[in-house]
Design goal:
The chain is mainly alpha-helical. It folds into 2 domains: 209 residues, 3-Layer(aba) Sandwich (Rossmann fold); 95 residues, Tyrosyl-Transfer RNA Synthetase, CATH 1.10.240.10. The strands form 2 sheets. It has a 3-stranded parallel sheet with strand order 1-2-3. The protein has a two-stranded parallel sheet with strand order 4-5. Helix 4 packs across helix 7 and helix 4 packs parallel to helix 13. It is globular, with a radius of gyration of 21 Å. It starts with 6 loop residues before the first strand and ends with a helix. 39% of the residues are buried. The chain binds tryptophan. Tryptophan binds next to strand 1 and helix 7.
């Protein structure tokens, strides 16, 4: 890690293959940050335990997510890629931070409220104290910035509050992290329900979500089946034309033009041509990622090595912070 660069921290839960929305909204940006910042990216497999998991699948998805990060072009030499549970400092700091987090604060978390409604049979304490673990993730690495989506804003706020609270009592221990607001960041909606975020949990329809490891033909078909409207004009107007606007946003996230500029390309053309162009663009964006994924996944020894070295590099930084914290709170050593 280079001394003079700011530190970016982010993590993603291994809760399935990332969607096109995760990719265009977050992961593509993670890759772009790697030259300017020291980036530390975690697989939040401890967070994943807050809902019931199949152990074999969880292990596989954790590994696959590391492989996918690399396939997207996130370089494990330049950045730190690691698995959260490989660094025990996360669990240790999370406990300490739990003792500085108020029930009232945690009760206000909208994600807790949503998830407890969804998993009414398993409202466990981990789900409730999830933000303390997330704060531990970020604060262990003295991160300057955290790229977060709308749904994680509140958790970053509580992280900042915890850092300030702790520092007020014990002196300078943690850096108070800022949100990193991406210059470009697409909010991709469902293909069948374009007024809601692209997410498996938002719809039962398989065509609503594209997963980055979907078969390429299937990806093209999902786009061709995307909901549009009874009009024929390709125009960026999320309010009145959510389906068409979403396809324009997807296209924009890939080619870097604005959705309005992209709409011009389809003046006088029908939705058929439009969908085909967007489908081709998505397929060509995803194809090399899938090829890389296959290539890297086949090299088991290399993947093992990346995971092991990632844990060592992350652990080195995390334990430095943890040692300070332990001393401050009065652990014997
Ligand atoms: N809670 C985040 C999510 O579900 C994942 C996460 C865990 C995270 N630790 C983090 C994100 C630290 C940013 C920083 O998406």
């Amino acid at each position: 890690m280079e001394e003079n660069k700011k530190v970016i921290y982010s993590a993603m839960q291994p809760s399935g293959i990332p969607s096109l929305g995760n990719y265009l909204g977050a992961l593509k940006n993670w890759k772009n940050l790697q030259d300017e910042y020291n980036c530390i990216y975690g697989i939040a497999n401890m967070h994943a335990l807050t809902v019931r998991q199949n152990p074999t699948e969880l292990r596989q998805r954790t590994r696959n997510l590391i492989i996918l990060f690399m396939a997207l072009g996130i370089d494990p030499e330049k950045n730190i890629l690691y698995v959260q549970s490989d660094v025990s400092a996360h669990a240790e700091l999370a406990w300490i931070l739990n003792c500085f987090t108020y029930m009232g604060e945690l009760s206000r978390m909208t994600q807790f409220k949503d998830k407890s409604a969804k998993h009414a049979d398993n409202i466990n304490a981990g789900l409730f104290t999830y933000p303390a673990l997330m704060a531990a993730d970020i604060l262990l690495y003295q991160a300057d910035m955290v790229p977060v989506g709308e749904d994680q804003r509140q958790h970053l706020e509580i992280t900042r509050d915890l850092a300030e609270r702790f520092d007020n009592i014990y002196g300078d221990v943690f850096k108070v992290p800022d949100a990193y607001i991406a210059k470009v960041g697409a909010r991709i909606m469902g293909l069948q329900e374009p007024t809601r975020k692209m997410s498996k949990s938002e719809s039962d329809n398989d065509n609503n979500v594209i997963f980055v490891l979907d078969d390429l033909n299937q990806i093209a078909n999902k786009i061709k089946r995307a909901v549009t409207d009874s009009d024929t004009e390709v125009r960026y107007d999320p309010e009145n034309k959510p389906g068409v606007s979403n396809l324009l946003s997807i296209y924009s996230a890939i080619n870097g033009k604005t959705p309005e500029e992209n709409a011009l390309e389809f003046a006088g053309k029908g939705y058929g041509d439009f969908k085909k162009t967007v489908a081709d663009a998505v397929v060509e964006e995803i194809r090399p990622i899938q090829e890389e994924f296959k290539r890297i996944a086949a090299d088991k020894a290399y993947v093992d090595k990346v995971i092991k070295e990632g844990a060592e590099k992350a652990g080195y930084i995390a334990n430095k912070t943890l040692r300070k914290v332990k001393k401050k709170v009065g652990y014997p050593n």
